[in-house]
């Protein structure tokens, strides 16, 4: 247990930050799953539409340093390649 007031405050902040970051990470994973589901359905137009929304979420999460910028780029690249491969 934290002994000082500063340590107690940092612990509270850590819990709040973890909750916020977890929700954003969940949003990210959900959007990626939506794109993958659209790719599996074989509908390129739907996949492109969902991919645009997912790209926005991926960039937003990377800007907040919840995931690394290179991971964000890799995810976008792989999703785009998978959509392109539908045709």
From TrEMBL:
Q: Which SUPFAM superfamilies match?
A: Ribosomal protein S20
Q: Which segments carry the region annotation Disordered?
A: 1-25
Q: Which GO terms describe its biological process?
A: translation
- Please give the Gene3D superfamilies that the UniProt record associates with this protein: Ribosomal protein S20
Q: Quick check: keyword Transcription in the entry? A: no
Tell me one Pfam family matched here: Ribosomal_S20p
Q: Name one GO molecular function term.
A: small ribosomal subunit rRNA binding
Alphabetical UniProt keywords:
Ribonucleoprotein, Ribosomal protein, RNA-binding, rRNA-binding
- One GO cellular component term, please give it: cytosol
Name by which UniProt lists this protein = Small ribosomal subunit protein bS20
């Amino acid at each position: 247990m934290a002994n000082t007031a500063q340590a107690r405050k940092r612990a509270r902040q850590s819990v709040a930050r973890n909750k916020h970051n977890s929700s954003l990470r969940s949003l990210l994973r959900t959007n990626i799953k939506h794109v993958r589901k659209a790719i599996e359905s074989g509908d390129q137009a739907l996949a492109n539409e969902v991919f645009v929304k997912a790209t926005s979420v991926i960039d937003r999460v990377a800007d907040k340093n919840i995931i690394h910028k290179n991971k964000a780029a890799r995810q976008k690249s792989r999703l785009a390649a998978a959509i392109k491969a539908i045709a």
